[in-house]
């Protein structure tokens, strides 16, 4: 019989760290919990002090549960079940089932409605960004603007026998989509989202430019859909035309004859594309890592509220990568 040393046996008995445990540990370390609690506490059951009855659930615990819901794209009932089933989720929330139970789905629903009513998800987004700005992760040298389509349920099998009136239809290429758009402005250096607007799907990307650009941006980058963007920037934005760096329409360069001029323009467009690529990173995190590929609620207001939470949390994921790269550079 093969014998193993005590050290080998101890190593084999060590608990393997799962991907979920690793992710939650990383998020726990980068979320500015104390600052978020200070921002949200005035609106969280402000009249409960001194009243009889069961005290409200702790704000930090409810915030942790709400973040789990965004990270794993879970409905209220599914989230309650997931916390019961997952030890790593219970550890993240701080719940010991031997002492207490998981907040039920109704409690989670009321908390989410409170965030929506007081527009607190935007405060969460702003506070996360303020925390990262203190770490020097917003360079304020330029902004990349872009938008992504988010599908909504097209079914009319409801009481009203109608689709959501705030969602609209639009065509992209030869395919039609029904839903909304998330318009974002991201920092051109770090790729972190600093501005967000939700509209119906039929709103042209370029018309939202002014709401996504910072006053002190030196350059504004966009794809060909933002042609003529300078016309939509306010007068207070300064020299608007010289700051806009918009991709040329693909067909215009393709029609050109081969030669030095075409080669130069292709090189310029390639450089523009390499800068604009950063705007795809928040979309990737929200849609692929967080699983947000379809609007969960009816109406733009509720969905925009969720988008503020999603892109704020996506910034934490991306910021962790930025900090990791910076540590690697300093170490070398």
Structure description:
Strands 1, 2, 3, 4, 5 and 6 form a six-stranded mixed beta sheet that branches. The longest helix is centred in the C-terminal third of the chain and has 32 residues, at 300-331. It is built from 14 helices and six strands. Helix 10 links the parallel strand 5 (219-222) and strand 6 (244-246). Helix 3 (33-40) packs antiparallel against helix 8 (120-134) and helix 13 crosses helix 14 (300-331). The chain has 332 residues and is α/β, with parallel strands linked by helices. Mean pLDDT is 87; it is low at 326-332. The N and C termini lie far apart (47 Å).
Structure characteristics:
6-stranded mixed beta sheet; 14 helices; globular; 48% helix; 13% strand; disordered C terminus; alpha/beta; 332 residues
């Amino acid at each position: 019989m093969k014998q193993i040393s005590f050290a080998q046996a101890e190593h084999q008995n060590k608990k393997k760290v799962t991907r979920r445990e690793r992710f939650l540990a990383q998020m726990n370390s980068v979320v500015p919990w104390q600052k978020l609690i200070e921002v949200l506490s005035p609106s969280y059951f402000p009249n409960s002090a001194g009243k009889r009855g069961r005290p409200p659930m702790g704000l930090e615990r409810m915030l942790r549960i709400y973040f789990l819901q965004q990270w794993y794209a879970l409905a209220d009932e599914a989230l309650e079940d997931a916390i019961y089933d997952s030890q790593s989720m219970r550890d993240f929330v701080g719940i010991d089932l031997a002492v207490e139970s998981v907040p039920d789905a109704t409690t989670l629903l009321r908390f989410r409605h409170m965030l929506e009513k007081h527009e607190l998800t935007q405060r969460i987004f702003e506070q996360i960004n303020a925390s990262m700005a203190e770490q020097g992760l917003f360079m304020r040298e330029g902004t990349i603007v872009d938008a992504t389509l988010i599908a909504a349920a097209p079914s009319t099998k409801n009481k009203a026998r109608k689709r959501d009136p705030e969602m609209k239809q639009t065509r992209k290429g030869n395919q039609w989509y029904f839903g909304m758009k998330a318009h974002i402005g991201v920092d051109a250096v770090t790729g972190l989202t600093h501005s967000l607007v939700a509209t119906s799907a039929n709103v042209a990307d370029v018309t939202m430019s002014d709401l996504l650009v910072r006053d002190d941006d030196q350059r504004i980058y966009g794809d060909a859909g933002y042609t003529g963007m300078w016309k939509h920037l306010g007068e207070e934005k300064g020299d608007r035309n010289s700051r806009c760096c918009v991709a040329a329409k693909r067909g215009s360069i393709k029609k050109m004859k081969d030669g030095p001029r075409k080669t130069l323009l292709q090189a310029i467009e390639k450089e523009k594309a390499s800068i604009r690529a950063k705007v795809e990173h928040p979309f990737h995190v929200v849609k692929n890592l967080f699983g947000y590929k379809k609007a969960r609620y009816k109406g733009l207001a509720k969905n925009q509220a969720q988008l503020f939470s999603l892109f704020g949390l996506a910034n934490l994921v991306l910021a962790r990568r930025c900090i990791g790269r910076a540590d690697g550079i300093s170490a070398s």
